[in-house]
Amino acid sequence: MELTTKEKIIHSSLALFSEFGYHATGVRKIAKDVGIRESAIYNHFKNKEDILTHIIDKYFDSTFLLKDNINLNIDKPKSTLLDIAMSFKLLSYDKNSDKFFRFFIIEIMQNKNVRDKYLDNYLEKQINALSSLFFEMMQKGLIGSSDPISLAWEFLSSLFFYRFQISVFNIDRFQSSNTIASSFEKHISIFWNSIKNSN
Amino acid sequence: MELTTKEKIIHSSLALFSEFGYHATGVRKIAKDVGIRESAIYNHFKNKEDILTHIIDKYFDSTFLLKDNINLNIDKPKSTLLDIAMSFKLLSYDKNSDKFFRFFIIEIMQNKNVRDKYLDNYLEKQINALSSLFFEMMQKGLIGSSDPISLAWEFLSSLFFYRFQISVFNIDRFQSSNTIASSFEKHISIFWNSIKNSN
DNA sequence: GTCTATACCGAGATAGAC
DNA sequence: GTCTATCTCGGTATAGAC
């Protein structure tokens, strides 16, 4: 697979941004990594920030969105939840997705554009989708009655943290990520055990 | 309370670092915020990185460590867990601690020194302490038998995420943090409901 | 589309007067 | 301990030849 220069620039930039941060990464470094001169960068991107924007637009979805063939079969509620958790786990152990994740965590804290994307395009959608799912389950009597939004937060929180933690381990303690490899499944087990209707 | 120049530098630096990041914050900006010239900074710190090091050393503990008067009364297991959660909540809604938290999240991803502190001085200790607590509870038959380390991860994960999320909301959607204000308590309720021994 | 050369700026940092 | 003045370096970005 032959990458165009533009693709190479994006690829190198992302690798450097996710390791050193956006500000600490110079255009010279990017150019060197690609194998061209700084000036050649500007044939493909307006400026440095333009590279950042392209990366965000191109990779945000693939970094955060779960596989969309999740079986939302309401009659098998526990395995539906497990499916979602496994989708998180898949992303966590995907090398590329993990790199983007680190990059985005940094940018969420510093870049309003990324932060808004995270809050509106990701978090809110996830919470809404999960709330609906739990609401349905309650109506069918599969789980006890309570606030579906709170359940959604509780369900998501652990999955997100495990992904965060694996991402931190993966920087320079790759082996340690094994210690929480089974946490995604364990979460479903504990969570389901708490909310299920036991009649 | 009169702050020394050195303290003022640390204070201003932290505010700027946590808002714009370490690399995006110049020594000139810090000096201006303090009300002195750049050169005067160097009477107090060797260089810019030296300021960073001092901040980390001075504030890491107060950012992450829970209040140490938590009552680890094993005979009231649920309220012990609630105490821990409330300690998290307290830190989340403390304005200063919240600022440091954002700063440290960024640095965890980019700075090996901070990352090691997070992993060794914070995370491992927390997991160990919680594991011991759950182990004791199992031995006393207060909760069902399972892997105490997994329980510790599951318990901590939600609390950490809620803190993370409140910190993100607090940047420019202060109002939204209310939506998860009760999540800390809710977490204890759901978690305890799952692990308690019901005999 | 990439190169060389260069402009320009702001960064971190130092010397020495006060 | 702070100031002014200044240095050097590396950053982003552009002009114009090939």
UniProtKB/TrEMBL annotation, chains A, B:
PROSITE patterns, per database record = HTH_TETR_2
User: Which residue numbers delimit the HTH tetR-type domain?
Assistant: 3-63
User: InterPro entries annotated for this entry?
Assistant: Homeodomain-like_sf, HTH-type_Tx_Regulator, HTH_TetR, Tet_transcr_reg_TetR-rel_C_sf
Q: Which residues bind DNA?
A: 26-45
DNA-binding as a keyword? yes
Keywords (alphabetical) are: DNA-binding
A Pfam family that this protein carries is TetR_N
Q: What is this protein called?
A: Transcriptional regulator, TetR family
